Amino acid sequence: MTGQLLNHVVEWAALWLHETMMSHGDKEIKEWMGSWVKRPFMINVSVNFDRNSVLTAISLRFDMYGNDSF
Predict the structure, then answer these.
(1) Is the dihedral angle over the CA atoms 57, 63, 64, 67 positive or is it negative?
(2) For residues 58 and 16, what is the distance between their CA atoms, to the nearest angstrom?
(3) Nearest to 54, CA basis, from 45, 63, 66, 62
(4) What Å distances lie between residue 61 and 22, 23, 30, 58, 69, CA to CA?
(5) Residue 11 and residue 48: Cα distance in Å, rounded?
(6) How confident is the model at residue 41 (pLDDT cuts 50, 70, 90)?
(7) Dihedrals φ, ψ of 19, to 5°?
(8) Which of 12, 20, 30, 59 could be bridged to 8 by S-S, CB 3.0 to 4.6 A?
(9) Of 56, 52, 69, which Cα lies nearest the Cα of 21?
């Protein structure tokens, strides 16, 4: 993937990321979660990712809906 990113323009990477995110609809996510419940696993970041990887995750500490009281 790194080689592909280096050989293309930023717009290509943005389109690829958009298409990847849009391919994860409600049905696909529910199927993946159902399979995870049957066979749970944890990702070991130090083994599964190198220093050039990007990992995105959620934070349970971030109150997404409670920040409207500015």
Answers:
(1) negative
(2) 22
(3) 45
(4) 26, 28, 24, 9, 17
(5) 28
(6) confident
(7) -65, -40
(8) 12
(9) 56
The domain segmentation of the chain, as residue ranges, is 1-70
Q: Identify residue 47 by its one-letter amino acid code.
A: V
- The dihedral built from the CA positions of residue 16, 48, 31 and 58, taken in this order, carries a sign that is negative
- Non-local (6+) Cβ contacts of 33 within 8 A are none
Residue 13: pLDDT above 60? yes
pTM greater than 0.70:
no
- 49 versus 69: the higher-pLDDT residue is 49
Burial 43-64 (b: 16+ CB within 10 A, else e): eeeeeeeeeeeeeeeeeeeeee
